[in-house]
Write a structure and sequence with these properties.
The structure is a homodimer. Chain A is of the alpha/beta class and about 475 residues long. Chain A is built from 15 helices and 17 strands. The first copy, chain A, has two domains: about 325 residues, TIM Barrel; about 80 residues, Immunoglobulin-like, CATH 2.60.40.1180. At the A-B interface, helix 6 and helix 7 of A face helix 6 and helix 7 of B.
Amino acid sequence: MTTPDWAKHAVFYQIFPDRFARSGAVEAQEAVQLTPWGTPPAEQGFQGGDLYGIVDRLDYLDALGVTALYLNPIFASAANHRYHTYDYYEVDPLLGGTDALRALLDAAHARDMRVVLDGVFNHASRGFWPFHHVLENGPDSPYVDWFKIEDWPLRPYASDQPHNYAAWYDIPALPELNTDHPPVQDFLLDVARHWIAFGIDGWRLDVPREIETDGFWEAFRTVVKDANPEAYLVGEIWDEAPAWLQGDRFDGLMNYPLLDATLGFFGAGSLRDYSKAHLTFDPIDAPAFADELDRLLALYEWEATCAQLNLLDSHDMARAQWILNNNPAAFRQAVLFLMTMPGAPCIYYGDEIGLSAAGDPHCREAFPRDDADWDTDLLSFYQAATALRHRHEVLRTGRIEVLHASGRTLVLRRTLADATALVAFNAGADAVQVALEAAALPTKPLSSAWPPSANAPLSASSSPLPLSLPPRATRVWTTD
Amino acid sequence: MTTPDWAKHAVFYQIFPDRFARSGAVEAQEAVQLTPWGTPPAEQGFQGGDLYGIVDRLDYLDALGVTALYLNPIFASAANHRYHTYDYYEVDPLLGGTDALRALLDAAHARDMRVVLDGVFNHASRGFWPFHHVLENGPDSPYVDWFKIEDWPLRPYASDQPHNYAAWYDIPALPELNTDHPPVQDFLLDVARHWIAFGIDGWRLDVPREIETDGFWEAFRTVVKDANPEAYLVGEIWDEAPAWLQGDRFDGLMNYPLLDATLGFFGAGSLRDYSKAHLTFDPIDAPAFADELDRLLALYEWEATCAQLNLLDSHDMARAQWILNNNPAAFRQAVLFLMTMPGAPCIYYGDEIGLSAAGDPHCREAFPRDDADWDTDLLSFYQAATALRHRHEVLRTGRIEVLHASGRTLVLRRTLADATALVAFNAGADAVQVALEAAALPTKPLSSAWPPSANAPLSASSSPLPLSLPPRATRVWTTD
C-alpha cells in the first residue's frame, strides 16, 4: 500500500472550530446570541469561533511548527460540535460559511499547510433535509429509504416515547443513514468528492466501523483518491484494526492505543483515575511499554504506521495534562515521545499553552484570547519539539527499534539510510545509567539534538557506552 | 409610480413545478420513489416535474404566446407545492437544483421570456435550519429570536398537544418568521437580492399582508429594484389593497377580484356552487359587471392597473373550466376578456389544453404527456387569443371605457394615442343588436381583429351604428 508522503512528515493541529478563535468578521454571528468567549463549556452554547479566526492564527500555527490542520466538523449543524449535520454541502454560517473555508484553504495552502476535515457519514441530524422530508411526508416521502425506519408516524422529538428509527448510539437527534440504499451511497460519495475537489486535503472519518455496507469504504477511497491522489484518509477507530489499513480503505487511524500506553508509561505515578472507551490509562513500566510499542508497530505495514495520526488527547476525552494530573515533566516527555515516533503527531488545540480539562464538554474550552493566560514556557517547548521533528527526517520515517527498556528507562533507535537517531527517555524520578553496546551505535558521530541547549556528542569510543540520564530526562542524538 | 414596462406587455404562464413537465434529466430523482406521472393529485406525493422539463417546453410556450413564467415555489422543500421552505438559497434537488434554474433562466432569457419566482417569506418550514437549530438547542439556540416562541420545550411534531409558536394558519409545519427581528429582515432581504442578482425577473409575494413589520416591504422593494430596476413585484392579495400599489411596495397584485366578476358574468347560468376565500362567483349581468370593472379600474393608478396579474384561476382554487361547469363558450369569452384588458393575463398551466378540476389538490394535476389527451382546438384558440393581444398594443395599455352594458352584452373601447379598439361581448344565448353612437367611434376605419377568420370592418358611416352580435360572440375591431 501507499500513503501520502506529506502526512508522514506532517505535524497536525486539531481544532474544535467553535472554540479556537473568533475573527469578529462573520456577519451571520451578528444575527444571533452567542455565549461569551471563555464561558465554561457545556453541552450547548455557541461561543463563535470561526474559520476566519483560524486564518488569523496561521502565523501562530506556523511558528508552532504545524503543517496540517484537522478540523472537527464544519458543515452546517445545530450542535456546537457540529457532528449533527443538516447540510453536507455548506459550511456552517456561524463559522463563516463556505466562503470562509475557501479563505482558509487558500491561506493555508499558500504556506504549504494542509487541511483535513471531519467526515460524519454514518448518521445525520434530525434537521438533515431528507429526514425532514420523511418527517413531513411519512411513508409517501420519496426519501423513505434513506433511513432505517421501524414504524409510523416517526417520533424524533417525543419525550415520552422512544424514537422509532435507527439512530447512532440510540440518540434520536442522530438518525442513521441507510448506506445499503445505493442513492445514499451516491450522495455520500459525492459529498466526499465535492470537498476534495473544493480543495481539502483529506478526511478524518467519524465512527467508520458503523458503516458496514460492503465495499462502501473501498468506494470512498477510490472516489477521494481519484479526485486527489495525495488526499489523506484517517479513520476514527479506537482499537487495533488491521483490516482497515491494507491499502483499500484508510491511510491511518487515530492512534488511541498508542496514546493509552504513552500516558500510562510517562504518567505512571501521577495518573488520575480516568478511563475512556477501552482506554484505561494503567501505569506501566518501560518493558511493558516497549512490548506494547512492538506489538502496535507490528500491526500495520510501514506505510500505514508512518501515516498514523498520533495523539495525546482529542475532543472526545480528557486533555492529557489533566489525565497526567498536570505533571509537567510527564506531559513534556509524552509530547517528545510523539515527536520522535513514526506517524504524524497531532496537537489538540490549546494543549501547547497548558489547557487542562476533564472529558467532554470540558475539554472543548475556548482558547484563551489573552496570552497572559498562556503557559508560554510550554509553548516554547512545543515549538522546539516540533522543530526537532522537522529538522530530522530520521525521526519521522526512520525504522524504529527498542535498544533498551528497563524500569522507567526506554532507549529507541531510528535509522533511515545512513542516518541514525538515538532517543532516550528516563521517565523515573532517579538518575540512571544505561550501558549501550557499541554495536548498537552508528559509526558516524552522534550529535546532541535534544535538549536544544545540550552540546554533548555521543561517540562509540568506549564499549559498552555509558548513557547518563538525569531524572525525567529526554535525550536525542542524531547523525545528521 | 412606475412599473416595469415588460410586465404590462407580458402574457404570463403559471407553472406548478412538480406537475408541469418531467425531463428525466434530474439525477436526484433517481434516488427517490416518485408517484407516477398523472396520479390523481393528493396532498402528498411528488410526481417529478422539474425545471429542465420547463426548458424542454419553451417552444410550446413560445407558440402559445407566453412571454413570462410565474413559477410556484422552487426552493428546497419537503412539500410537493414547496411553500414549506427549508433552504431559501437552494433550488429543490428534485427540480434539478440551482443548476436547473440557471439553465431555465438562460434558455428563457435567450428568447426574451421572463421568469418570476414565488417568494414565501412570512413563514418557513419546520425543517428550515434556524428552526431546527432552536429545536435542538432550545432557549440556548442563538436563533431563538428568529421565531415567535411561546414556551419550552417546542412542540412542532406533537400530535396530542398544540404547537407552541406562531405558525401560519396555525399549521405547525409552518413556523412564522419573526420579521420584527432585524437579522431576520436582513436574511430575507438578502434572499430577495440574491435571486434577483442570480437573474430572476421578479417576485410573486406569498401572503404579504401577514408581514406587518413597518417598512419591511418598502425595504424589500428597494433591495429588489436596486438589484434590477426592471424586476416585477406582484403580491398575493385577494381583495382590494390600494395602500400596496402606491409605488413603494408592489407593482401589481394577483387580480382575484376581477376574476370573481369575470367568471360571474361570463359564466352566469352555468356556474357551479363554488366559493373560495371571499370570492363567491355570483352570476351577474353586464351592468353589474361594468360597474365592478369601473370600480376596480378606479382603485389604482394606471401604472399599477397595467401591471396587475390578471388570472382566471390558480393553484389555490378550482380551475375556471370547472367553475364554469365546462361551458366552453363562457370559458373562451373569459379568456378573451383577459386578453383584452389592461394588466398582464396569466394562464394557469393546462387551462389551455382543457384541464378542468376542483380546488386544491385536484387543480394541481400533472400536465398530460400525450397530446391525444389535449383539447387541441382550445389550444389553437389560446394561441390566437394571445396573438391578438400581442398584435395590438392598444389592447394592452390603451385607456379603457365601457361604451355599452345591458343584459348580457358589454362593449368596451380602448384608446392609445391615435389607436382605438372596440371589444364587444355577447355573453347571452340570444343574438343582440347594439346601437353605438357614431361619436364613440374613431374617424379612422376599424378592421376586424377577432374572430381571426372574420373580415367585417366597422365604419362610422351610419349613426347610430348597429352592431350585430350572435349568441356568445366576441368581436374585436382595431384601427391599427
